[in-house]
Design brief:
Strand content: 15-25%
Number of helices: 4
Shape: globular
Largest sheet: 3 strands, mixed
Order of helices and strands: HHHEEHE
Keywords: Signal
Number of strands: 3
Helix content: 40-55%
Radius of gyration: 14 Å
Distance between the termini: 12 Å
Pfam families: BON
Protein name: BON domain-containing protein
InterPro entries: BON_dom, Lipoprotein_DolP, Transpt-assoc_nodulatn_dom_bac
Strand order of the largest sheet: 1-2-3
Length: 116
Amino acid sequence: MNKRIQHGTFTATALALLLAGGTALATDDPKTERSDSADSQQPMGDTWITTKVKSSLLADPDVAGLQIDVETLNGVVTLSGDVASQAQIDEALRIATEIEGVTDVDTTGLRVDSTE
């Protein structure tokens, strides 16, 4: 994929995340987030965490951010999808772990796909 397409895809995805998460992405303030999740014990942070993890994965050139799905419940981030290598799994784990509010990261849903 050429750089122009990657940048356009990143921009479109970041905009979609921004629209889905309100102003949380633009302000980086988890207190401004709104959530419809009644199951979460941390409703003001999970959507913000998901948005922040996904945008950080998309911004990293060494991770297949578009291939990784991100879900968060009570600060626990679950990553799933197909990646090209174990190194991408390790990098995704590192990125997600560094996000404020993340209490744990589950990468068991990430699979190395040799066709990536």
